[in-house]
Amino acid sequence: MKEKEQSEWLSWLKALIIALFLVWLIRTFLVIPIEVDGPSMEPTLHNGDYLIAEKVSYRFSSPKRFDIVIFHATADKDYIKRIIGLPGEVVEYKDDKLYINDQFIEEPYLSDHIAQLQSDTIYTVDFNLTEDIIGRHQTIPEGYYLVLGDNRSNSTDSRSDLVGLVSEDDIIGQARFIYWPFKRIRLVN
After folding, report:
1. Contact, 143 vs 167, CB < 8 A?
2. What are the subcellular locations of this protein (predicted)?
3. CB-CB contact of 30 with 56 (8 Å)
């Protein structure tokens, strides 16, 4: 009887070790859970939303405009923001409109929200890369991205000296899925 109990304990111990190893493997190389902390990504993401971010796609391709990414903002803190400017581009907001290399670019993820505001409300204050972003670059340097929160008036993002342009090396992953709260379960666009 004692041998059978030991065998059963060893089976449980092996299963537990394998499960812990799989969790470590998945969290290290595939996905990470992350909580939205603050209102900087509203109306897209809300304070207290829990997300799954995948870490794989950026190993094979570069981030794209409008991807929502998680990145190391400081040694202690990761931020969630939307990529607006790509390497080699000139970015400017003028009269509440986004211009990339002097071409107007629509931001469809904000259209409904901005339409609900009063007509004289400015959503994104004018700024440009050469005068208002730390480093005062003519274009976004290779390997860097300009990121903004969707809640432009309440976001610490590339316009802040704390964040500035974000290095591709600091990008952890791309937000893909809200899994909590239950009523907000959906894919992240």
Report:
1. yes
2. Cell membrane; Membrane
3. yes
Count CB-CB contacts under 10 A for residue 65: 16
CA distance 21 to 133: 43
Which of 2, 7, 40, 61 is an active site residue? 40
Q: Which of 14, 57, 81, 153 is catalytic?
A: 81
pTM: 0.85
**Radius of gyration of the chain, Cα coordinates, nearest whole angstrom:** 21
pLDDT at residue 1, rounded to an integer: 61
DSSP 158: T
**Phi, psi of 156, deg, nearest 5:** -90, 105
161-171 confidence digits (pLDDT tens): 889 999 999 99
Q: Does 40 participate in catalysis according to the annotation? A: yes
Q: Are 79 and 167 spatial neighbours (Cβ–Cβ below 8 Å)? A: no
More confident residue, 52 or 10: 52
**8 Å CB contact between 164 and 145:** no
Q: For this structure, is 7 an active site residue?
A: no
Distance CA 177, CA 149 (A): 18
Backbone angles phi, psi at 73, to 5 degrees: -85, -40
